Amino acid sequence: METFLSDIRGQFGEYYDTLVAITPRLLIALVLLVVFWYISYYVKRLSTSRLQKNMNDSLLASFFARLIGSLIFILGLLFVLRFWGLTGMVGSILAGAGITAFVIGFALKDIGENFLAGILLAFKRPFRIGDTIEIVGVQGRVVALNLRDTQIKTFDGKDVYMPNGTIVKSPLTNFTIDGFLRHGFDIKIPAKSDYDALLKQIEIEVNRVEGVLKGRRKTSIQVKDISGGTVVITILFWVDTFTKRVPATHVKNKVMLTIQKLVDSW
């Protein structure tokens, strides 16, 4: 029994001595990881600011900044592995397929796929920050393109993080890629009205609303249905989503209320 207890004490003593021996190296490694994380974060912020000033595409600038920050952190991780004496592991990683392969191998397969899809999206640029898009039934405004996913803010306030791989492989609708968006709504007009005069007045009132575009993208009024003496018309008009002075949703609300008041008083 005493021999057994002596063996246990000896084994724990060896573990303790090993722990004491590696503790300084472990603390230094943790400090180095924190330092490299801070450097990558600072460089990412600095790169975002500089790239957005020199590039017209804020989406591409933001993506490159995140990529630079991630590469710096990966280099820091490789340095820590070398510090721990794991040079064989570092050598095999670098010799195998480079840092990109390390990223894909370090993560799961779908993460690697989404990472490469993010690069394709950054260069293809089917949308920009602030664009209104719809993808696999999710409609909202693009907030950010990350290394793995794209953040979309829906109109009811939800944040959806769509995997980049899904976006690349699915049909995507961009409602505001050129800044112009057409709104439309239906309304019933009173029976036995002076239809020509009413339609002309409706067009005038729509064009009076601030934010409604004129000229090449002019207002259009179409008769949609005639049933039981009731005439249903469709009113179509264009807005510029790039302007910040009058939000597009505000313009639509103003047009609808204005026309409803006009029809009620006719």
Automatic annotation (TrEMBL):
> Which terms are listed as keywords in the entry?
Membrane, Transmembrane, Transmembrane helix
- Membrane topology for this entry? Multi-pass membrane protein
- The superkingdom of the source organism is Bacteria
Q: Name one GO molecular function term.
A: mechanosensitive monoatomic ion channel activity
> What InterPro entries does this protein map onto?
LSM_dom_sf, MSC_TM_helix, MscS_archaea/bacteria_type, MscS_beta-dom_sf, MscS_channel_2nd, MscS_channel_TM-2
Q: Where is the Mechanosensitive ion channel MscS domain?
A: 113-176
Cellular compartments per GO CC? membrane
Location of the protein in the cell: Membrane
UniProt cross-references to Pfam families, sorted A to Z: MS_channel_1st_1, MS_channel_2nd
* Keyword match Hydrolase: no
Question: Which residues lie in coiled coils?
Answer: none
Q: What is its main location?
A: membrane
Question: What are the transmembrane regions?
Answer: 20-43, 63-84, 90-108
Q: Which PANTHER family match?
A: SMALL-CONDUCTANCE MECHANOSENSITIVE CHANNEL
Family that this chain belongs to: Belongs to the MscS (TC 1.A.23) family.
In Swiss-Prot or TrEMBL terms, this protein is called Mechanosensitive ion channel
> Which source organism does the UniProt entry give?
Litoribacter ruber
